[in-house]
């Protein structure tokens, strides 16, 4: 069976590790066809497990594949940390299988770029007739939409603290840092680098993390024509990681026009500059073991 056809599984809870799984790695729109098998075609969605605790970073179309894999193993309460509410980051919400078939579930979205308001009103505009046949409130699960201002910490009832930062993107976006027992991951998606670079505040935010998931949608050659679109290039991600003392970077939010052949070449060039850098692949898993 070809690898692209094999079913993907969600992580099993593991208190001795921080786990990351990519369910969608594209930006703007999905990509499909024989040239998009190796890296995948779903839009942004990342599963992060802090031990047994599940967080979902963005709810693009990759959320549908994650839901099919998770199914009845979904926790009763699901927390989704949204970078922002552009379509490619929320389009999977009505298609997450546990939302459709569970009546006892609670879904909490967290959004930091709407002036302190939650994402509820924006999502009602996206998911309602005549654009969409139903609203999210008509799904069996119950939704809560929590707003904050990017830069504020999020503190959850089990004591987990998620640190956030405002990102340079049209309409705003939020970056997240998740720490678990001396392991950490940062999610910097839908972000355009600034000048001078690296940005000192962002370097401090990323300092010493184990893995940075970084928006590298635009190629260096195309960037002059894409300035102001709110996306970055892998070279700036490498510069930032080196300034922050980070050894591993996942290039993410891939352009839907960039096929496997192009991305393989890009990854080869990245690794010459930063051996721990790679291009995120749909279904790829990273397990950061807890020592001691």
User: Looking across the biggest beta sheet, what order are the strands in?
Assistant: 6-5-4-3-2-1-14
Give the helices and strands as they follow along the chain. EEEHEHHEHEEEEEHEHHEHEE
Report the end-to-end length measured between terminal Cα atoms: 40 Å
The backbone outline, from C-alpha atoms, is: globular
Q: How does the helix and strand content classify structurally?
A: alpha/beta
Strand fraction band? 25-35%
Q: What is the percent of helical residues?
A: 10-25%
* Unreliable stretches: 1-6
**Largest sheet properties:** 7 strands, mixed
Evaluate the radius of gyration: 18 Å
- Could you give the count of β-strands? 14
**How many helices in DSSP terms?**
8
Instruction: Name the average pLDDT.
Output: 93
List keywords for this structure.
292 residues, 7-stranded mixed beta sheet, globular
Describe this structure in words.
The protein has 292 residues and is of the alpha/beta class. It is built from eight helices and 14 strands. The protein has helices at residues 62-70, 87-90, 97-101, 120-126, 200-206, 223-226, 234-244, 260-273; strands spanning 17-24, 45-50, 53-57, 77-82, 106-111, 142-147, 154-155, 161-167, 173-180, 183-188, 211-215, 249-252, 277-279, 285-289. It has a seven-stranded mixed beta sheet with strand order 6-5-4-3-2-1-14. Helix 5 (200-206) crosses helix 7 (234-244). The protein starts with 16 loop residues before the first strand and ends with a strand.
Task: Briefly summarize what is shown.
The protein is α/β, with parallel strands linked by helices. It has helices at residues 62-70, 87-90, 97-101, 120-126, 200-206, 223-226, 234-244, 260-273; strands at 17-24, 45-50, 53-57, 77-82, 106-111, 142-147, 154-155, 161-167, 173-180, 183-188, 211-215, 249-252, 277-279, 285-289.
């Amino acid at each position: 069976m070809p690898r692209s056809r094999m079913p993907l599984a969600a992580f099993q809870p593991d208190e001795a590790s921080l786990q990351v799984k990519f369910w969608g790695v594209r930006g703007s729109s999905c990509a499909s066809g024989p040239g998009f098998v190796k890296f995948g075609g779903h839009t942004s969605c990342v599963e992060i497990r802090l031990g047994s605790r599940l967080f979902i970073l963005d709810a693009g179309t990759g959320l549908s594949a994650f839901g099919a894999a998770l199914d009845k193993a979904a926790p009763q309460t699901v927390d989704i940390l949204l970078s922002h509410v552009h379509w490619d980051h929320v389009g999977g919400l009505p298609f997450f299988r546990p939302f459709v078939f569970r009546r006892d579930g609670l879904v909490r979205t967290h959004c930091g770029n709407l002036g302190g308001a939650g994402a509820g009103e924006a999502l009602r505009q996206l998911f309602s007739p005549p654009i969409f046949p139903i609203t999210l409130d008509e799904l069996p699960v119950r939704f809560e939409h929590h707003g904050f201002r990017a830069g504020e910490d999020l503190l959850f009832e089990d004591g987990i603290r998620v640190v956030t930062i405002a990102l340079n993107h049209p309409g705003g976006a939020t970056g997240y840092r998740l720490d678990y027992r001396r392991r950490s991951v940062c999610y910097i998606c839908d972000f355009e680098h600034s000048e001078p670079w690296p940005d000192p505040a962002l370097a401090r935010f990323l300092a010493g993390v184990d893995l940075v998931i970084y928006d590298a949608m635009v190629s260096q050659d195309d960037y002059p024509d894409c300035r102001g679109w709110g996306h970055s290039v892998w070279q700036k991600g490498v510069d930032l990681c080196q300034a922050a003392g980070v050894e591993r970077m996942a290039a993410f939010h891939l352009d839907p026009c960039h096929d496997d052949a192009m991305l393989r070449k890009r990854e080869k060039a990245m690794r010459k500059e930063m051996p721990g850098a790679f291009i995120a692949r749909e279904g790829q898993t990273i397990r950061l073991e807890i020592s001691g």
